[in-house]
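Feature request, filed as a ticket because there's no other form

It would be nice if the structure record came with a short human-readable summary line next to the tokens. Right now we just get the raw output. Example of a typical job, pasted below so the devs can see what we mean:
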Amino acid sequence: MLQFLIWPFVASLILTGIHAYLGVHVVERGVIFVDLALAQIAALGATIAILIGMDPHGTGAYWLSLCFTFVGAAIFAFARTRRGHIPQEAFIGIAYAVASAAAILAMSKATGETEHLKDMLVGNILAVSRHDVFKTAILYGVIGIFHYIFRRRFLLISTDPERAEAEGMSIRFWDFLFYASFGFVVTSSVAIAGVLLVFCYLIVPSVGAMLFADQVGRRLAIGWTMGTLVSALGVYFSVLLDLPTGAAIVCTFGAVLVAMFFVHLLFFHGKQARALAGAGSVEDPKQRVLQENR
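Raw output as currently delivered:
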């Protein structure tokens, strides 16, 4: 059984590595559902590939899905307005709805291949092979190197876009590069693990890390640690209780995040409340009068 689960577990570690980092950017940008939108756009590309007679697991279908994802990346990059009259999340939601409806229309003309589309959206991490793991590791390694080289630009645009613009950076150009690289990750990850699991790897570690750290480096360390432990626990529970591995990992993510929230509430939030209470006692009216008289 251990030999059977080793490659799914390694795949989950690879997903943790890249998605915990990208999740920091996604949460800072406030575009939480961009992963779901890009995944649905990629699914639309796969549907069109099936409709025109391509092998759903072939190279042609993958590149067509990727092209659709690049179109979505361009839309999200140019939808980021300077003054922000319309939230970028609104465009992401619209893109998700339109892509979903278009995929349904296309599937109605390719009813015999809907099972392949279901596999793409739901995923089956247990079916991942050693070849898939190595191929995914190489792809994500290249994307990781790309983000490491331009890490200052990407982080500055995510955390302080006004300063980035003041320094003369092209926000839309770098946004497109971010979403395009993000699209590479989503297109590959969804085929392996499904939309729900990929979404959890992207968002939950970053949210959990934000409870305990403000700096990006510490958030990444907490996120990677959380993703690794949750992956191990999820795989263990799936074997122990005979449950679907992907769903078990998703539920384990939820349970661990709730536990982290209570730890934060008891230990960190309590300390902050006591500190504020102490500061408030200094601001007693009598003390304020004494300070003013001085």
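Something like this underneath would help us a lot:
The radius of gyration is 22 Å.
The chain has 13 helices and no strands.
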